[in-house]
Every structure is written in structure tokens, then in C-alpha cells.
Amino acid sequence: MSTDYAARLQTVLARIRAAEQRFQRPPGSVALLAVSKTQPPAAIAAVAAAGQTCFGENYLQETLDKMTELAALDLAWHFIGPIQANKTRPIAECFAWVHSVDRLKIAERLSAQRPDHLPPLHVCLQVNISQESTKHGLDERDVPAVARAVATLPRLRLRGLMAIPAPAPEFAAQRMPFARLRALQERLIAEGLALDTLSMGMSDDLEAAIAEGATLVRVGTAIFGPRA
Amino acid sequence: MPLPISLFDLFTPARLAGMLVLAAPLLVGADDSYLREIEEEAKRQAMTLTTSQPQPAPVLAAPAPDTAAERLAPGLDRAAFERSLREGLPGTYASYQQLNSASQQRVYESYRNDNRLTNISEQVTRLLSGKP
Fold first, then answer.
1. What count of Cα atoms within 13 Å lies in the side-chain half-sphere of residue A166?
2. Domain tally, chain A
3. Do B118 and A86 touch (CB under 8 A)?
4. Range of the domain at B44
5. Could you read off the pLDDT of A176-196 as tens digits, one per residue?
């Protein structure tokens, strides 16, 4: 079983390296976040044993339980799910990254609640790039104002943007929303914000995301298999 | 000495019916007292249930700092509002400072009607993004 996880992880890493090469991205410029939501601690431990250190989670309570069980491992936990305002404190206290900041007030709470003994919390702003009513994320037009405000918060470090575009079957169609997110990021950088992270691309579209500048792809199914 | 009537004679259907008629008030009386006992027991149980019913669980309050952070203090003048914004919502305050004075006044007036932090923060973002 551990061998399966290790083999699947290597396959995903090979896809990432191949895409870097194909789209003239520097080798190693794209990092992998293993999305471990709903996966048991044993599966995460097996993937960690194969060399993966960054894990993405959507559900707070589930993750807190896993963190306790896997405390002996040196893992970096990324929160990638929707954030309720009354749940920011444990997120600020327990995670290294948050990819799903979609309101300024959430960022302000995370900053206020980040313990002083920890380094600043790395955050990305989630953008509703496909403008789907069912998806979380900032309206593209609000991103510059929110980004400038988040960048002033003392206990956060704004690293970049995150998006989950609507699924598209064709490679060219997959690239379009990623290109828009990259353009938005470039605009913010031109305004003086020091952003270095584009968190975009999952199991089915990571090549398109890498083609458009992803620096971090979030992959679950291709590593852990389909969720039950 | 032989009995004046035999046992068979004693339990003839006619005599049995007569005995039941005579015994009926006693049986009814027994039922009544049994019912009374049940009623009294039910009353006792009802009283016990009423008096020992658990109090409703107290509504769990969110941690104080989080709850307090949901609203700015009401009724602040403009200067106090801005101070409070700077302390409570530093990111929103940074955005607020970028608004022109008319927009800042709009935010302040909105706050006087609705002091929820979420609404203040979202209004500042909207205005800065050029939305109505």
C-alpha cells in the first residue's frame, strides 16, 4: 500500500517536472501540495515517508485530529478550504499557510490571532476566477484593494493568489482562467506587492496551470486515489 | 354428617352468577383503588419530571475577543470611529485611508446605521474597487 502511494507520488512529480520542461519553466519552480482531505493519517504518513512534506486540508476539525496523530512528522499544513469567521483562531494557530482568504475581515482575524511565537502566516487570496456563484473567492475587481490591505497586516505574509477554475475538458480552455489569474498577479506585482505564489492547478489540469505560471499545484486524487 | 348441599350444587351457573353480582362492587372497588394508585403515582412522576427537568443548556458563547470583534462600538464620532477602525481592522483602515473624503464620509455614515465589522470592511473594499 505504501508502495502505491510512493509510486503515485513519483508519477505526479514526474508530470510536474515534464510540464516545467515543456513550458520552459525553471526546474523545481513548481511545488506540490498533496491534498489530503478525508485521507486517514496512515495514508498521509505513507506519502510523507515517500518524501512529501506539504499537505493541504479543507476541513478544520479533521485536520486538527490528524495533526495530533502525525505530530512526530515534520509536515507543513496548508489550509485550502472555505473559512468561517468563527473558526479563524485554530487556523491561525495551527497552519503554516492559508490559500483560501476570500474576505479582508478573515485576513484581519487571522493576523490578530496568529500567535507571536510563530512566524507570520503565509496567505494567498482566493479569487473566483470563473465567476461561479457556487464558488468561494474574491471578485477579480476587488482583489487589488484587498491585496493592498492584507499586505499591511503585521502577522500575515501575502504570498499570492489561488483559484479553482470551472472544469474544462480542453487544454486551451483550461489555460484561460489560469492566464487571467497570472495577469492579475502581475498587475499586483507591478503595483509593488511582493508576490511569488500562484496556487493553481489540480490533478486534471496541472499541466495547463504550469503552462500559465503556477508555482504550486494542489493534487489529491492522483496521489491518494479517488476519495471514498 | 353430610353437607346440606353438595359442592356441585354450590357452583351451579345460577349461583355463580349471583356470587359475581354480589362480588362486583368489591371488584369495582378494587379497580377504583388500583386506578387511584396509578393516578397518584402518575401525579408524583409528573411532579418529579416537572421539578427535576434539566434547565436548558446555556448557549455557548464564542470566545470573548472574537465576539467583541464582530462590531465596532456604536455611536462613535468620526475621529473615534477612525481610531477604532485602525485598532480593530487595520487592513480595512489601510484601505479606508486610500478613499477620498466623500467615500470616507459614506463609510462613516453607513457605520452609524450598521456597525458590523464585516459590512464596514466589505463597503470599504467595494468603494476602493470602484463599485457602487
1. 8
2. 1
3. no
4. 7-52
5. 999 999 999 999 999 999 999
